[in-house]
What we know:
By secondary structure, the chain is mainly alpha-helical. It has one domain (23-336). It has 13 helices and no strands. The chain is globular, with a radius of gyration of 19 Å. The two termini are 29 Å apart. Residues 347-358 have low confidence and may be disordered.
Amino acid sequence: MNPSEAALPERPPISAPDHPVAPSLERAQPRLGLLGLLLVVPIAALLAVGAGGADSSALVLGPLVTYGLPLVAMVAFWWEDWPGTILRPSWSGWADTALIIVGAVLLTGLGQIVVAEFDLRSIFDPSPGPGHVPTFPATMPLAAAAFVAMLQLTLVGEGWPLRRLPRLTGGLVALAIAWAVAIVLYFALADVRSELGTVLILIGAWQVLFYVAWRGWPFSAISRRALRLSCAHVVVIASGVLTYLVAHELLGAGPDPLAAFAGCFVAAGLLFGMLFEGWLDRLATVVAALVLAALMAWALHAVAEGLQFTRASADDWVTHVGLNAIGVSIILHVGIGRRWPFAPGVVKLAPVARADTA
Length: 358
């Protein structure tokens, strides 16, 4: 059978509660995670400053990577690394990454069309000049909405009912639905677009906590799918909105600093939930993620004080580094590259069957 037509497991393995961590993976931690940092950190550094400095990277790579995030989720969680899986392990992750890069450019152009008009120069030039609409910040709320919608459908919604389709078809349909939702949100919430991006990142942080760090707990305790998914969708979205209201309205945190910390928490949650998978229990994972997120936000802001910014801000750059540079590097290494070259394939385990009642 063509791998692209193979059936998908009922849930993405990363968030399946009955999907055990391989004993070999548990024994390999934290050494395996530390080795992974040897690849993750250089890639993250390249994304953080590789477009001619921090400011240009936030303005150019920030939108490109954000538009590429739904593709990362599609390849990792729907296509399960196809088409890279038809190649040898040393080429698999790189081939998928190349595909994602091309797709990210195309989706960034699509985002321009939705927001204003297609402008190739604005995609790659941090200061395109008069008559051009820069992709940052104009198209960022749309990009963030597409990614959060993709994760909501893929992890929180368990991909239901699309995971009954062949993986290639299911992934493409999920991507299309995520984009449709993003476009509706973008125009329906036009009056609060400046705050929408922060709220979406906070929702993303809760998605990572519940479905990467905690592997679907506590919703996995609900046996009936309809009730489980309904509760999960409501709680995850409400948690993100309430976090924003409490932090912004009651505690006085600005949207940009709040987004920066949430981006760092996403990076920390992915680090402990994916890179160091199987090392810590649920409580230790969330405590470690909060501590690391705080340290990361403090350190990155300290670095940003010595950098020069034009249209982007220090908070924008910290958000880009946490959410895009570090977060994407971890997913590429673990979810798509399958931990090559340190332990290729160790993350890809056979799903455990589960009988759910509809």
